[in-house]
Amino acid sequence: AQRVTQPEKLLSVFKGAPVELKCNYSYSGSPELFWYVQYSRQRLQLLLRHISRESIKGFTADLNKGETSFHLKKPFAQEEDSAMYYCALSVRGLKGYSSASKIIFGSGTRLSIRP
Amino acid sequence: GAVVSQHPSWVICKSGTSVKIECRSLDFQATTMFWYRQFPKQSLMLMATSNEGSKATYEQGVEKDKFLINHASLTLSTLTVTSAHPEDSSFYICSTNSGRGYEQFFGPGTRLTVL
């Protein structure tokens, strides 16, 4: 079964502290994983994807196939990082090309950064 | 990034009426669009995949006769909630990718309240 699990509904840390938002997935194929972020009163937007292996706004995420995890990390949290974070899995459709892929979202983790 | 709009942003209707929600890709042609619903403080649940020129693909448990999807052009997909009831009250969000990769671009969402 295809599933994305985010065990924490809420994560609250102090400004400057390290942050780790957990994500585990279940997928029989080769996973394509993403982190999406939704700031207050804004639409959902892509934060980063595992393929690009980039750091966005100081966040990184490494795909660990052995542990089926894709945890999101940031060494020093900032107040502007407060938002809802969703881990997501791209699942290929029957046609097998990217435009037919669909996204399965985890339940989300609300990150709150305390001053 | 690609721009996706939704109309209306907010709608209130009486129980038993039908409501149409539009999703437009403003700067690219979208052969595939996705419709999600999001209950308060919950994750996005994929309802259906809308394919231009063909029938939509519905997720398990989603009534296709209840949620009619039409994708008549490469820039417009519509979701019609037929005979709406209070339990249909939710936030409906559409998304698409631009065909150039896996990144999904989301609309701002439509809040439906059924009285």
Description:
The complex is a heterodimer of chains A (115) and B (115). Chain A is built from no helices and eleven strands. Chain A has strands at residues 3-5, 10-14, 19-21, 24-26, 32-38, 45-49, 60-61, 72-74, 83-91, 102-105, 109-114. In chain A, the strands form three sheets. In chain A, strands 2, 5, 6, 9, 10 and 11 form a six-stranded mixed sheet that branches. Chain B is mainly β. Chain B is 0% helix and 53% strand. Chain B has no helices and eleven strands. Chain B has strands spanning 4-7, 10-13, 19-25, 32-38, 44-51, 57-58, 67-73, 76-81, 90-97, 104-106, 110-114. In chain B, the strands form two sheets. In chain B, strands 2, 4, 5, 6, 9, 10 and 11 form a seven-stranded mixed sheet that branches. In chain B, strands 1-3-8-7 form a four-stranded antiparallel sheet, with no helix packed on it.
Question: What tags apply to this protein structure?
Answer:
heterodimer; A: 115 residues; mainly beta; six-stranded mixed sheet; 43% strand; B: mainly beta; seven-stranded mixed sheet; four-stranded antiparallel sheet; 11 strands
Summarize the structure.
With 115 residues, chain A is mainly β.
Overall 3D shape of chain A: globular
Helix/strand class of chain B: mainly beta
Report the major sheet of chain A.
Answer: 6 strands, mixed
Topology, number of strands of chain B: 11
- Could you give the count of β-strands of chain A? 11
Q: Look at the structure and give the mean pLDDT of chain A.
A: 89
Unreliably modeled segments of chain A: 95-99
- Taken as a percent bin, the fraction of beta residues of chain A is 35-45%
User: What is the average per-residue confidence, as pLDDT of chain B, rounded to a whole number?
Assistant: 89
How many angstroms does the end-to-end distance of chain B come to? 37 Å
Give helix and strand order of chain B, one letter per element, not per position: EEEEEEEEEEE
Radius of gyration of chain B: 13 Å
Oligomer: heterodimer
Task: Indicate the structural class of chain A.
Answer: mainly beta
Distance between the amino and carboxyl termini of chain A: 40 Å
Order of helices and strands of chain A: EEEEEEEEEEE
Instruction: Please tally the helical runs of chain A, counting DSSP H or I stretches of 4 or more residues.
Output: 0
Give the proportion of residues in helices of chain B.
under 10%
Cα-atom Rg of chain A, whole angstroms?
14 Å
